[in-house]
Amino acid sequence: MRLAGSRVLMMLSSSDTRQSVLESGVLCKWFSKVANWEPGIEIGNKRAWLSVSEIRLHVWLRGTFDNITSIWGTLILSDDLTLVPNSFERGHILIETYKLECINELVVLHVQGLTCRVRVVEFEPSLEEQSCSLCERAYGFKLDCD
Questions:
Q1: Which of 19, 82, 120, 137 has a CA-to-CA distance to 64 between 20 and 30 Å?
Q2: Number of domains within the chain
Q3: Averaged in consecutive runs of 10 residues, what is the pLDDT profile of the chain (146 residues)?
Q4: What's the pTM?
Q5: According to the lineage, what is the superkingdom (predicted)?
Q6: Alpha-carbon gap, residue 96 to 75, rounded angstroms
Q7: Closest to 107 in 3D by CA, of 64, 143, 146
Q8: Is 7 inside a domain boundary?
Q9: Of the candidates 118, 123, 120, the residue with the CA atom closest to the CA atom of residue 54
Q10: Contact 96, 72 (CB under 8 A)
Q11: Domain check: are 68 and 19 in the same one?
């Protein structure tokens, strides 16, 4: 199960099973670091949905969202309506960031020789608002949407 950000917690049925899995080395193929749980482990990063608004139409580009993402972390995905919008009111992106405080900022961007100010606000989407495919891509599980 995902703890937060890129941290994953695996619970195994017994300490013998844990030892066997660790000794097999199979986890090293999937994870950059494997360690036993300790109560003092800090998460350190998180996934955050950002709502980006006040973007000028002529700079509604993938590169603009990449620039915004790079301020706080790395892009995981953009929602379907951000990439192919039916409205230019706002775009939504999911990032992984080490900024644990809530993001709510006015950002100055330089895009195609222009200076633009955009509003970036972290939000927690309700599951009803998300499409099944978006949930599956963002969180690694599929909801029963019927």
A1: 137
A2: 2
A3: 67 84 82 77 83 89 88 89 83 91 92 86 72 52 45
A4: 0.68
A5: Eukaryota
A6: 7
A7: 64
A8: yes
A9: 118
A10: no
A11: no
